Structure formats: C-alpha cells, structure tokens
Amino acid sequence: MDCKICRENIHDFIKDNLSRKETGQMNAHLDFCAECHREVAQERNLSSMMNQWEVPKTGKGFDLRLDERLAQERNRPHSWFRRLFSVN
Ligand SMILES: [Zn+2]
User: Is pLDDT of 31 > 90?
Assistant: First the structure.
C-alpha cells in the first residue's frame, strides 16, 4: 500500500469500516510510515472531538430554553425579572 491509498482509507480505517485485509495493510503501512501515522492520529483526535461536541449540543438546547423563559419573564409586566434588573 502506498501513502495515497493509505490517506484515502484513513477515514474508514478510523471508523472501522475497512475489511480485515485492508485494516492489516493499513497497519503494515502505518508501522513504517510516520507521515500517515501522524495523519491517522490527527483524524482520531478530530473524530473524538466531534463525539465530545454531542454533549454541549444538549447543553445548548437547555440554554435556549432558559433564554426563552427569560425573554418571557422580561416581557411580563411586574415580573421578578423587571424588579431584579430594573428593566423598564
Ligand atoms: Zn504513508
């Protein structure tokens, strides 16, 4: 396997989508090719970062709901929000 094919396979390699034979070829190439090895490490970091972003996404939904509630409070006359922040 050469670097070009290796690079094309990196994504599938990380996602475990390659056949056993292809995975073996990838590992063999990565054993002696530092360049591709680094490439794989970067891709792995990237995809684990993507996975971690799933968590803040739910957090953001919560924030949005909170914002909506605050906006409702703000628009209500005599709400605790107006009293608290003296919004007129
Ligand atoms: Zn290579």
Answer: yes
Q: Are 36 and 7 in contact (CB under 8 A)?
A: yes
Q: How far apart are CA 35 and CA 44, in angstroms?
A: 14
The 3-state secondary structure of 5-27, one letter per residue? HHHHHHHHHHCCCCCHHHHHHHH
- State in Å: Cα 45 to ligand 1 middle: 18
Q: What is the pTM of this model?
A: 0.56
Could you write out the three-class secondary structure of 51-74? HHCHHHHHHHHHHHHHHHHHHHHH
Report pLDDT digits (tens) over 32-47: 999 999 999 999 998 8
| Å from CA of 23 to ligand 1 middle | 14
The sign of the torsion formed by the CA atoms of 27, 16, 2, 45 equals negative
CA of 53 to the centre of ligand 1 (A): 30
